[in-house]
């Protein structure tokens, strides 16, 4: 059970590994949760047998963007409307590099360049903001404005002077010539796009499986577990301390600015990765990734799912994007707005933490030994 | 070559645009601690109400603008009651399950941003569903004035006059009226103000109505110059937010000063390098300003003043 003592030599390896992923900063520290988690991952692995994996891979890719905001906003308290800036930078960097060097090794390098590009973008913006003493909400406004300016900028790059090597940025028309995603070097490489592999599955016969879907799934699950380990580490506790009370954290001797910058860079790199995969999946990128609507989608996912919950970010991203794609039409945005408004007003902590609370309240007492959530005055007064 | 008159007119235009775009946002932000991301959509309401009452009801433009302003102010009151203060949902909650459903969004900056963004999505898409992708515009009044080889819309010059009048009006409201005094008391210390008998809830409601009304006025004034589409509010957002950030805590002075400084920067860069670089320069100026004056221009002035007082 979750009543495990702090890690010590007497524990099994599994328990010690598991302890890394558990703590007061994440939902789900019980056996039941991990069983459910494995079932969910297994279901996602099997999903292409029954569903549209090509579409679903988009949701997985966007979940990475949602996670990047969750860690920056939910855990460190920096509300960034600019995650799409780094997302777009990642995507555009990937496009530019891969078009110029379209060998497998070059494309692999382009993926890394995209991630690094997102990180560098975040480092520059973050350095100016955090070391410039820009406070909480002004960070939000600056990131929002940065998004809009980048949109204006990319939209006017249609001319031939906006060409980097062989890659034309293309203004509103975007960049359509991105090569298919390959990872590896030379012959030891594998193409992930449009390269469905026939696999014989008992009960289903021979099925064509999309390798990109599995790449996205592996990256998402890996990122989720990695972030869980991060937020439950000592550094994660310092991050949460920054979120709860910056001044007090500084008084305790933590370098608040550096923590915020580091997390912001991490979030930027993660958003960059998401952008790389987005551009690779669509084999296309255009300035719509910098529009106000796209900029706010991560904020919607994370607020609805529960900003202090990594799992909430993933679930809400997939659910909302699924609703958005299937509903389509004129009323989809109205419903999205209503959902956002309703969640902020009635469940300010998000849906997943609320569900979690309901489950815990209906469970016998010992299960509560997983420790209280991060102290939260609103929760305490609600009981 | 830089033409002096062109530059001056460009400056007046930028100044008017920035001040008008920012005024409503600054008031709501400064007094209520609410960041209204639906600010652009309040401008949209004003612009649509003005245009529709001029084209459909045949009102003269000035009357239509008044209608636009009042409709937006009324809309602001409704939004305040339903969303920002949560008074209506809470009243229903008290009647049905005996507890409040929502907490007011006052001073919950991030939450208010997210909530009002939801509102803005609903409004933009709602406007598109109801009115379609665009509606007929009203013509720009007053014609042009010509000088040398150039001509310039007289209406744009009128707008800069209006923006100055608006700053004076807001200054008067906040320094000389009872509402202004109680509103400033509420900013300084809400608890004490309430203990002294100020109905802070009313102040918040009135403030939101004034802020919305100003956004509506902005929409009404720019209605003849813009193409009427549901996303028209977006083009005000960058300038509005940058002006509020650069202006700092003091609402009227901050808006006026940041309108002046940013207007000058934008005018020079637009004149030299075109609209796009004008915008980039605006953002760069905001970044630099924030790097060195994290509390904005008026925050800096306050710091200097208090230092000087300590020195005496």
Tally of helical segments of chain A: 15
Give the biggest sheet of chain B.
2 strands, antiparallel
Instruction: Name the quaternary structure.
Output: heterodimer
CATH topology name of chain B, in short, is ABC transporter involved in vitamin B12 uptake, BtuC
> Alpha-carbon distance between the termini of chain B?
49 Å
- How helical, in percent, are the residues of chain A? 55-70%
Total helices of chain B: the number is 13
Strand order of the largest sheet of chain B: 1-2
Give the overall pLDDT of chain B as a whole number: 81
The interface involving the most residues is between:
A-B, 44 and 42 residues
Characterize the overall form of chain B.
globular
Uncertain regions of chain B: pLDDT < 50 for 5+ in a row? Answer: none
What order do the strands of the largest sheet of chain A run in, or round the barrel if closed? Answer: 1-2
Provide the domain count of chain B: 1
Structural class of chain A: mainly alpha
Structural class of chain B: mainly alpha
Query: What is the number of strand segments of chain A?
Result: 6
Determine Rg of chain A (CA atoms, Å): 21 Å
Subcellular location (chain B): Cell membrane
InterPro entries (chain B): ABC_transp_permease, ABC_UrtB_arc, BCAA_transport_permease
Family (chain B): Belongs to the binding-protein-dependent transport system permease family. LivHM subfamily.
Pfam families (chain B): BPD_transp_2 (PF02653)
